[in-house]
Amino acid sequence: MKKKWVPMLLAFGLVLASPLSSQPVEATGNAATVKEDQLPAKLENLMKIAPEHQFTLRKGSTRIEVELLQWTLNHYGLKTAVDGIFGPATQKNVRQYQADKGLKVDGIVGMHTWAALYAEHKKPFDPEGKLPSNLRNLMDIAPEHQFTLREGSTRIEAELLQWTLNQYGLKTAVDGIFGPETKRNVRQYQADKGLEVDGIVGVNTWATLYAEYQET
């Protein structure tokens, strides 16, 4: 009599261990990893705030701005959970992003890192390479009367500089903020043109930049 219960107990145990019981959990997990292609409106609205006025984010921050940061990192190619919590994984990816962009690698999202992140969402340039009129108008000012630009400058003239560097072939975010990436590309441009390589845009560099448009 005792032996008859053994097969029944074994069969009951197999039913309990069946993989069918885990299927709902797996389906939920897969649904949670679906990746959105369009920036949600609530995050896009945050970009109406200029980078220099954004909150500085660091490990421990828990704000909606952290979601914008994480969403952008994730779509840049650095897999990041969009949970609004600036934890170790987010910090690691921020540091990697900063290294990729030639920024100071400190894991802190300040003005220069925000500017680079914003640029990830910029629309592509006009395929015909036409300089926007608001920037073209700046060229009514002679090179010798233009503002001298250097790292830290935040002016519309910096957009003209960046736009020109980008069209020249030095990939530069057009955000109006003269950060490390812009400085690096200015130095490369100066070297290419036989100018003094100091990363400062003065009369001679402006004159050379203006000359890029003489044929148009």
Would you give an account of this structure?
There is one protein chain. With 216 residues, the protein is an all-alpha fold. Helix content is 47%, strand content 0%. It contains 10 helices and no strands. The longest helix has 14 residues. The chain is elongated, with a radius of gyration of 26 Å. The protein starts with a helix and ends in a 5-residue tail after the last helix.
Query: How far apart are the first and last residues' alpha carbons, in Å?
Result: 100 Å
Structural classification: mainly alpha
Task: Please tell me what the overall shape is.
Answer: elongated
Which regions have little confidence, pLDDT < 50, spanning 5+ residues?
A: 14-35
Query: Biggest β-sheet, characterized?
Result: none
